[in-house]
Design a protein that fits this description.
It is built from ten helices and no strands. By secondary structure, it is mainly α. It starts with a helix and ends in a 6-residue tail after the last helix.
């Protein structure tokens, strides 16, 4: 049975609304990663998405709520779908890509750029960090596993800080495959169940390590 004109118009509206909402999420993810929460303005997010601010508030209610959805879609989705033994490398590669790879998760960049924001934002970032550390801690059977998870996360964020925020050379322009091979290879002493990197993540994305 053919769609009625009214039903067809409603379906088109829903598709259009969903597309606009996704564009706003993508734009917010990019700008939060580039500038941090405080400096990424609602006006700039809407402009990058090709929408107006009224639509942003209609779909998300507030900038803070939009930030929460960006983090949920990125970091929490990565935690949900990535095996524990691959989480560190996948997160590291996403951070090293710096938005140059389509679909790369930028949640940790958002964390780094947004540190020092409001108490509510700081609490959200702290919560996400605790979730990453808890998963990484499962890769150690030591009675210091929780501490090891925190140390692994600290190393991950420290690398991101020096590369993404500070721009310290040669790390800032280093090849991601080289960085991953060196870091993940050395991390095995801290997280005993972490597999030694063999380029499998790179190979899955069509790249081979040097």
């Amino acid at each position: 049975m053919a769609e009625s004109p009214q039903h067809g118009a409603e379906s088109a509206y829903r598709r259009s609304a969903q597309g606009t909402r996704l564009r706003l999420l993508d734009a917010a993810s990019e700008l939060f990663a580039e500038r941090g929460y405080e400096r990424a303005t609602v006006r700039d997010i809407a402009a990058r998405a090709g929408a107006n601010q009224a639509l942003l508030f209609r779909y998300f209610g507030s900038k803070r709520a939009l930030f929460g959805e960006v983090m949920a879609r990125g970091g929490h989705e990565q935690l949900r779908t990535t095996p524990a033994e691959r989480l560190f490398e996948v997160a590291l590669r996403g951070m090293l890509a710096g938005g140059r790879e389509e679909g790369a998760d930028r949640s940790l960049e958002v964390c780094l750029r947004s540190i020092g924001g409001s108490d509510e934002i700081a609490e959200a970032l702290r919560g996400l960090g605790e979730e990453y550390a808890a998963v990484l801690a499962t890769l150690s059977e030591s009675d210091t596993g929780t501490l090891r998870g925190d140390l692994a996360l600290s190393w991950l964020l420290g690398i991101g800080l020096m590369r993404v925020v500070v721009g310290k050379e040669p790390l800032a322009s280093a090849d991601p495959d080289t960085v991953c091979r060196l870091v993940v290879g050395a991390l095995g002493g801290l997280l005993e169940s972490l597999p030694q990197t063999d380029g499998s993540v790179a190979a899955e994305s069509g790249r081979m390590p040097e």
